[in-house]
Fold each of these.
Amino acid sequence: MDETISLKIIVEKIEVQNPLHAKKLKENIRTLDSNYQHWAKSFLQKTEKFLKKTNVSLDDCITFYLKKVNDSIFEMVNFFQTGKYRYNSFDEVNKRVYSDPDVMRYNMLSLLLSQVLWKQHYIIFDFFKKHISEYVESKSYLEIGGGHGLFINEAAKLFNTSCNFELLDISETSIEIAKSFIDKKNITYYHMDIFEFSSKRLFDFISMGEVLEHVEKPKDLLKKVKSLLKPEGVFFITVPTNAPDIDHIYLFNNSEEIRTLLKESGFKIDYEIEVSTEKISVDDAHKRKICVIYAAFLSF
């Protein structure tokens, strides 16, 4: 990889293969502030090191990303036609996605670029960074469904050095990618289903980014999270509405459904944000079945 990765280079390479999508990316990037530009530069420097470490070229990563874009369109067409997600069984998506290293590798590497190219991902991460500094005295941190480990990596920069960090994911491929991406070395990793996880300690802070839609019974998952959290602990969660994907099972039609489920599960909303993935209001997105990302910091 001879060239230094930049937003400009990535968008130019995408434009060669998908001019329409590149146009949308340019429009979205223009709406973001200077803080985004600074963060994107730092994130891409880290991404470049990660790709070199894992022997993946930028071109391969872009190929995965564009496949993800096309797959998302395919799933969205089916969603508009049927009003539901294609899959409703965890066993099915586990076999098709989480247990298949090739599919997970494609999925994780494509999402790596989406983190910096999709405005909703940046806005949600910026929301996390804005409030995470309030919890720096936490002594124990658990990330469920860690993905690349973006959230836990940010927390590890700020939290007390004595804080114990643990990350759990059902995909071994995801864990291996997180190990290469996360800066902090003394993190304990668990390759297992969250419902099989037990701990002698309760956690001060738990994060779970875009996991709730991957299970058949989200209320059971929230109950499990609550059982792992200290009474005074904090839970950060992100959940998409109307977001068909290759491994999404549970459909949330709007943010209010998520709020209701959280409150019924015993959580109190301390901070929250909603971000439409398109250039329309959140209310219009819900009405038109367009994806909105909901995120919140929760307590008991």
Note: The CA atoms of residues 179 and 185 lie 8 Å apart.
Amino acid sequence: MSGQITFTMIKPDAVADGHIGAILGKITEAGFKIKAMKLTQLTIADAKKFYEVHAERPFYGELVDFMSSGPIVAAVLEKENAVEDFRKLIGATNPAEAAEGTIRKMFARSVGENAVHGSDSDENALIEASFHFAGREIF
């Protein structure tokens, strides 16, 4: 499946702001197929583990607190060239720098509350998908 899947989370800010449907609409309109999806909430321990790659960065504590602050929608998406195409669809981390029409430009509150997560590599897409879903949950 490498190269054909990516992982995303609709973050607590976008869930709280009622943007789940609009974001999922943008994702499917862009040609992605949803292979797995669930509404869930990360515990602090889950968020620490998921983002442990950033543990030495100054924003790590805030990131963990934010990502465990409310429900998220976790999803595995499928499309040819999935990671790169999804990164284009979501836009720059800073919504002020994101291109018009991207998910972050439309729905993010700030750099820290930027509406969605998207895998940054094929390898991380597989790791992140398996963090949230058992193999039998991905269709």
Note: The chain has one domain: 3-133.
